[in-house]
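Whiteboard transcription, Tuesday session. T.W. wrote the C-alpha cells on the left side:
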C-alpha cells in the first residue's frame, strides 16, 4: 500500500462545521446540521463555529447586528445539547487565524476556480442587484477552506448537495500541500440525510420566502406559524376528504408526532372525521412540546450573559491554540 493510500484510509478524528450567523435559526438548521452536530460530538473531536465573517459578505450594511446574532445562535446550539466540554465552540471573527490562513490560500487559488463556482455564477445578478457583488462573496470558498484547514479538519458534515462545494476546499488544500508540503488533511464529507422541509406556504423553507418555522419560537408566534400553513388544496370544505400524502402539515407530523398521532391524522383526514384546524392543533401541541425544554435553556443562557461569555471565551481560546499550531506549520513551510 502506498503512503498516500494509507493516509487516505486513516479514520476521521477531527470534524469542523459552522453556520453563518445571518439570522435566527429555523427548523431546517436543526435537521440540516444541529441535530447531527450533537451526535458527532460523541464520536469525534469537533470544532463548531458561528461564522460571522461569512455572514458579513451579504450583511455588511448591518454588521453591528452580527455579534448578537452569533451569540443568539450559539445559545441555541447549547440549548439543544451541544456540549462545550466535548466540542470547541467559537465565533469566527474572534479567531483571527482564520483570516491569516485565508491570505495564504488566497495567494495560491486560481481566480478561474472561483469564477466557475456554480453558486457564484448563479447568484451573480442577484448579488449585483442587492449590492453584495463583492470580493468577500467571490472568495467565500477560500475562507471556507481556511476555516476547515486551520483546525486540520478531516471530516465536514454536509448534505449531498454540498459535496461539490467541499471539493473546492479539498482542491485548495491539495494545492497548498503540493506547493509547500504542509501536509494538511484533505477533508472528507460526512454525509447527512436532510429531510425535505416545506415552509408554511408549501414552498421550500427559506428566510427569503418568509415561510420558515424558527426554532424555539414563543408559543404565540409558533401558533401563528402553524395556523398559516397551507394544507391539501383539494380539501376546501370541512366535510371534504383529504389526502395527507400531499399535505405539508402531515410532513411535519412525520417529524414531530407519534405514530399514534399520525394514524389519527390519516384516518381523520381521509374520512373528514377531523378538520384541518384539528390537525394543525395537534401539530402545534407536538411542536411546542418539542421546543419547550430547549426554549427555556436558551432563555437562561441569554439571561446569564456572563456564563455565555465565559463559555465562548474558553472556546475561542482553545480554537486559537489549535489554529496557531496550523499557522506555525504553514509559516515554516512557506518561509514566513
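and on the right, the sequence the group agreed on:
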Amino acid at each position: 500500500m502506498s503512503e498516500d493510500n494509507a493516509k487516505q484510509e486513516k479514520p476521521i478524528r477531527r470534524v469542523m462545521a459552522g453556520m453563518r450567523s445571518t439570522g435566527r435559526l429555523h427548523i431546517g438548521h436543526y435537521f440540516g446540521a444541529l441535530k447531527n452536530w450533537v451526535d458527532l460530538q460523541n464520536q469525534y473531536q469537533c470544532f463548531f463555529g458561528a461564522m460571522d465573517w461569512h455572514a458579513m459578505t451579504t450583511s455588511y450594511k448591518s454588521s453591528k447586528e452580527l455579534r448578537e446574532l452569533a451569540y443568539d445562535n450559539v445559545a441555541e446550539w447549547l440549548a439543544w445539547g451541544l456540549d462545550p466540554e466535548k466540542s470547541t465552540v467559537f465565533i469566527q471573527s474572534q479567531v483571527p487565524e482564520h483570516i491569516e490562513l485565508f491570505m495564504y490560500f488566497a495567494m495560491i487559488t486560481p481566480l478561474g476556480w472561483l469564477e466557475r463556482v456554480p453558486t457564484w455564477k448563479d447568484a451573480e445578478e442577484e448579488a449585483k442587484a442587492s449590492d453584495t457583488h463583492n470580493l468577500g462573496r467571490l472568495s467565500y470558498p477560500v475562507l471556507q477552506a481556511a476555516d476547515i484547514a486551520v483546525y486540520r479538519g478531516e471530516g465536514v458534515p454536509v448534505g449531498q448537495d454540498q459535496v461539490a462545494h467541499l471539493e473546492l476546499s479539498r482542491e485548495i488544500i491539495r494545492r497548498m500541500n503540493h506547493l509547500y508540503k504542509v501536509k494538511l488533511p484533505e477533508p472528507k464529507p460526512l454525509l447527512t440525510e436532510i429531510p425535505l422541509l416545506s415552509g408554511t406556504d408549501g414552498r421550500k423553507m427559506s428566510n427569503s420566502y418568509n415561510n420558515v418555522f424558527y426554532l424555539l419560537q414563543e408559543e404565540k408566534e409558533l401558533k401563528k406559524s402553524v395556523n398559516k400553513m397551507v394544507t391539501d388544496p383539494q380539501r376546501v370544505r370541512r366535510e371534504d376528504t383529504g389526502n395527507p400524502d400531499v399535505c405539508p402539515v402531515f410532513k411535519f407530523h412525520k417529524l414531530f408526532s407519534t405514530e399514534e398521532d399520525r394514524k389519527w391524522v390519516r384516518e381523520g383526514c381521509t374520512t373528514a372525521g377531523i378538520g384541518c384546524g384539528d390537525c394543525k392543533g395537534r401539530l402545534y401541541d407536538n411542536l411546542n412540546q418539542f421546543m419547550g425544554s430547549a426554549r427555556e435553556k436558551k432563555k437562561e443562557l441569554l439571561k446569564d450573559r456572563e456564563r455565555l461569555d465565559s463559555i465562548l471565551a474558553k472556546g475561542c481560546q482553545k480554537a486559537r491554540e489549535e489554529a496557531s499550531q496550523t499557522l506555525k506549520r504553514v509559516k515554516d513551510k512557506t518561509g514566513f
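Someone added at the bottom: The two ends are 35 Å apart (CA to CA).
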